[in-house]
Every structure is written in C-alpha cells, then in structure tokens.
C-alpha cells in the first residue's frame, strides 16, 4: 500500500512538473525595454529577450495542416448535410472555419528560353529571359502583347516605375529604358558595374555601384537627380520608405538619405551585422541581426524598443502588413509578430528553404520556398490556405496584381519556361447554430463566412415556401443574424455578401415545426 501511494505521488509530481514547464515555454513575454543605442546592447534585461517556441520546434516540417476544402460559393446546403448537433450557438461554429481558400489556375503561358526576372506595371507583366528576350504580358488573361529581343542577356530583373510608366532593363554593359508599349526610349552605356538589383519609386530609379557610389536618376529620361559617395561598402540593397532611402554598410553603419536630394540625413552605428531590415512609418527600423535576433529600433530616440530571439536562425526577410510584422528564416520558419511590442501571434513551418520575397494578396501572404513550392498563409491565423507545387524550377519571384498572383518556372526536360496566372474564387458559406428542423420559438443564429472579399458586408433575407424574399437585416459588416421563428413552414435563409467589386449569394433551406420547444424535447427523449 505504501509503495502504491509513493508511486502515485511520484507520478503526480512528474505531471505537475511537465505542466509547469509547458506553461513556461509557451507563455508570451512582453517586450518594450530599451537596452542601449546599439544593436549589440546587453540582452539580460528582464522582459527584453523573447525565446520563441518556434525555435524548439524548428525541425517540425510536417506542421502544415491538412484542411478540407470549403463548400463552393452558391452551394445550397441542407441542414441535414451539415451534420450539426444541437448545442449552444457559439459551440456549433467551432471548427467550421473557411480556412482553405486555394489558388486556381487562370491562365498559363509558354515562354521560350529560361525565365530570368519578373516585374509588373499595374496589369502589365514584364518578363525577361536569360537569352535577352522581353515579354510584355496581360496579367488578366496571359496574352502576350509584345516580344522584344536584346543582345547579351540581363544581369538583374526588370524594374518598373509606375510614376513615369517606364520599364528599366539591365544588360551586361548597357541599361535600357522602355515605355509601356515596349518602345525603346533610352539607352545608357558604360555607366559602371551595378552590384544590387536597382529600385524604382515614383519618378526615380536608384542604383548602387561597386565603387561605393549611389545614384538616383529620373525614370523617364535617365537624367541625374543626385550622386552620393558612400562612406563604406554596402551590405544589402537600399530600401525606400516615404521620403528617405536607407542602406546598411559592411562596417555595421546604417545610412539614412534624403530621397529627393541625396543628402545624408542620419547615420546609426550597430555592433552586429544586419542580414535583413524593414522600415515602419519611417520611424521604426526593424532589423534582423547576424545572431538571429529581430530588433525594433526607434530612429528618433536611437533606442531599442524590443528584441526577439529566433534562436540563432538566419533571417531571410522582414515585411509588414497593418499592425503585424512577418519574419521568415532561411531554414523555413514563418512568424507573425506585433509591430508594437514584438509579441508572437503565430508561427508556421514553410515547406522548404526561402527563395524569394513574399507578396500580400487577399488577406494572405504568399511565399516561394524550396525549388517548386508556392504556399499561401492566412495573415491572421497563419493557417495554410493554398499550396501549389509547380512543374519546374522557380527562377523568378512572385507578383501580385489587382486580380492575379503571377509566378513562373523553368522545365529543364522541355527547355521551356511557363508563366502562371493564379486567381481566387470568392466563397460564401452559411451555417445554423441548430440543425433543421426546429420547433417554433427556438432561437437560431445563422453565421455567414466569406473569403476572397475585401471588407465584405452582409445582408440576410428570409423566404417562406415559394413566397417573396423579405429583407431581415440591412447590409452591415456583422456576419451573424438571430432568428426567432413564430410560424411553421419550409423556409429558405439567404445571405448576400459583397464588397466594392464582388457579390456572392448563398441559400440554406430550413424547416420550422409546429411543436413547441418543450414538446419537441419530450418527444426526442422518448
């Protein structure tokens, strides 16, 4: 008896210890402490360093969830087919999320040669090949508008300037500027060796050369805006934010340059090399350090706001959308953090190493990884919404136009490239909190779920038998409607979801019986 009690006590102690350990690992830590004016400041301040649970599970590459496809838009569902059990309205909606919203192929275009680079000027796709061809393609239907041949091939992907509607191409020793129609507007020779992919913003194109020189030229004419000799060798390509250009140097110095004049506005000295960086509102500089930390730096006060440790993982890129920051590591981890304090929102494994920067599209972030995979993640939950394995090697980035996701790959066996335009089919589903049939007097909550819309609004209608539709609730952003039926019959509940461009309607048949709720319960018990 004593041995049994000791054994039980021992097991209880082990269970409690494991429980406390799990809570300690998963509990979020609030950031916001200032350490020093340098990235390499002390890390032992309380609440300053985040140890991510993702770091402990980084080898878990099978975490991507298998989620069933949602019902197609407009599908008429019977309450019997939903298989819902009678329970509280809130409980009924659990695990009934439209989380899978896959990409569908809108068009495919065959390209001769090896695809090299992609850019988009609104709905115009600019594609370049290793062989020096330039394709101008309509992103809506994939139609090739024009093909232009340049000698010698290209060393950087094309760059487009929306402000002047010009297209810049970078050859071995020449720079070309085209107008939107494809006509050659400008050719520049012997300008120097460019070391990073150029960038365009408004009416300017920014170039960084191997002799530590940076230039800004007019996008339409190539005329020089300004020229600046950098005080050190650049470590990463420049980043444009508002009225400033930011560029990190090899000696851990970070420069801030006036975009219009090229005048140096400020410099920031860090103690660690920077592998990635992102600017938020021209006020907060978020950097990924060589040691695997993500650090938010206040440019005005020159102080660290918060620091997050990713466990010595090399950071591939940083991007932001709304109030969240998205961080990807080279070994395949994607995290969403709060910009305000660095708190972890969610994390997911990426199926393969990161290859190109992501794009945002329809409340999702799309990531190219490995050599052939395009994966979409829901911005709020991190759930996988779409996963596509392309038939060849991805050799250019992914683009997002107003209506399409565009990416390309190269098939070595066929020695051809393929450019794909992917689309989203908006979906709408309606679910009741109680299964049909229900007696008169039962409170029933109908919940509509829409994906593929931009800030959708909902209208609820009710129709008895073959009678007219009656508007039950005017358009609003609230996606639920509560019904207290007072008359028996076969009803149809109708939901209309719409935004500025899209409209979808879905119906649900529902039966109300003449039995009272109490009699119905007695009958079900018998």
Could you characterize the architecture of this molecule?
- This protein is mainly beta and 526 residues long.
- Helices cover 9% and strands 47% of the residues.
- Strands 1, 36, 38, 39, 41 and 42 form a 6-stranded mixed sheet that branches. Strands 2, 31, 32, 33 and 34 form a 5-stranded antiparallel sheet that branches.
- The relative contact order is 0.13.
- The model is unreliable at 1-12, 20-99 and 522-526 (pLDDT under 50).
How do the helices and strands line up, and which of them pair or pack?
Elements: H1 2-26, H2 53-56, E1 77-78, H3 79-82, H4 89-92, E2 103-112, E3 115-121, E4 124-129, E5 133-138, E6 144-149, E7 156-161, E8 166-170, E9 174-179, E10 184-189, E11 199-201, E12 204-209, E13 213-218, E14 224-229, E15 239-241, E16 244-248, E17 253-258, E18 264-269, E19 274-280, E20 284-289, E21 293-298, E22 303-309, E23 315-321, E24 324-329, E25 333-338, E26 344-349, E27 359-361, E28 364-369, E29 373-378, E30 384-389, E31 393-394, E32 399-400, E33 405-411, E34 416-424, E35 427-432, E36 438-439, E37 444-451, E38 457-464, E39 470-476, E40 480-483, E41 489-498, E42 503-513, H5 517-525
Parallel strand pairs: 1-42, 36-42
Antiparallel strand pairs: 2-34, 3-4, 4-5, 5-6, 7-8, 8-9, 9-10, 11-12, 12-13, 13-14, 15-16, 16-17, 17-18, 19-20, 20-21, 21-22, 23-24, 24-25, 25-26, 27-28, 28-29, 29-30, 31-33, 32-33, 33-34, 35-37, 37-40, 38-39, 38-41, 41-42
């Amino acid at each position: 008896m004593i041995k049994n009690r000791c054994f039980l006590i021992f097991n209880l102690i082990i269970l409690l210890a494991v429980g406390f350990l799990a809570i300690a690992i998963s509990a979020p830590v609030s950031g916001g402490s200032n350490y020093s004016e340098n990235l390499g400041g002390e890390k032992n301040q309380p609440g300053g360093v985040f140890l991510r649970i993702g770091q402990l599970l980084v080898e878990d590459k099978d975490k991507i969830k298998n989620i069933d496809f949602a019902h197609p838009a407009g599908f008429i569902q019977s309450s019997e087919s939903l298989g819902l059990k009678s329970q509280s309205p809130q409980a009924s909606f659990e695990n009934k999320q439209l989380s899978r919203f896959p990409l569908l192929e809108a068009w495919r275009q065959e390209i001769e040669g090896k695809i090299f680079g992609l850019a988009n000027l609104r709905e115009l796709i600019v594609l370049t090949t290793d062989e020096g061809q330039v394709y101008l393609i309509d992103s809506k239907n994939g139609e090739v508008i024009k093909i232009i041949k340049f000698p010698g091939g290209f060393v950087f992907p094309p760059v487009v300037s929306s402000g002047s509607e010009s297209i810049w191409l970078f050859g071995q020793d020449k720079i070309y500027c085209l107008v939107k129609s494809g006509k050659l507007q400008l050719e520049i020779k012997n300008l120097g060796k460019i070391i990073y992919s150029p960038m365009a913003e408004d009416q300017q194109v920014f170039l960084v050369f191997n002799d530590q020189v940076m230039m800004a030229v007019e996008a339409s004419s190539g005329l020089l805006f300004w020229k600046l000799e950098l005080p050190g060798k650049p470590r990463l390509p420049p980043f444009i934010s508002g009225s400033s250009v930011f560029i990190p140097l090899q000696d851990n110095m970070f420069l801030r340059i006036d975009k219009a004049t090229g005048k140096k506005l400020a410099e920031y000295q860090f103690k660690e090399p920077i592998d990635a960086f992102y600017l938020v509102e021209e006020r907060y500089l978020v950097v990924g350090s060589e040691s695997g930390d993500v650090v938010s730096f206040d440019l005005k006060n020159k102080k660290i706001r918060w620091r997050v440790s990713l466990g010595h993982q090399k950071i591939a890129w940083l991007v932001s959308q709304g109030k969240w920051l998205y961080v990807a590591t080279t070994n395949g981890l994607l995290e969403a953090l709060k910009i305000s304090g660095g708190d972890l929102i969610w994390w997911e494994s990426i199926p393969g190493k990161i290859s190109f920067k992501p794009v945002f599209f329809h409340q999702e972030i799309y990531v190219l990884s490995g050599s052939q995979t395009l994966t979409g993640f829901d911005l709020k939950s991190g759930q996988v919404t779409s996963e596509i394995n392309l038939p060849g090697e991805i050799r250019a980035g992914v683009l997002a136009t107003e209506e399409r996701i565009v990416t390309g790959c190269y098939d070595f066996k066929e020695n051809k490239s393929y450019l794909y335009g992917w689309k989203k089919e908006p979906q709408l589903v309606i679910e009741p909190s109680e299964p049909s049939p229900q007696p008169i007097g039962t409170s029933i909550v109908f919940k509509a779920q829409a994906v593929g819309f931009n800030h959708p609004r909902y209208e609820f209608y009710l129709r008895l038998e073959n009678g007219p539709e009656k508007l039950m609730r005017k358009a609003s952003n609230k996606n639920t409607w509560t019904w207290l039926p007072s008359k028996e019959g076969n009803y149809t509940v109708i939901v209309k979801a719409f935004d500025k461009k899209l409209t979808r309607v879905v119906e649900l048949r529902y039966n109300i019986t003449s039995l009272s709720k109490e009699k119905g319960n007695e009958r079900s018990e018998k």
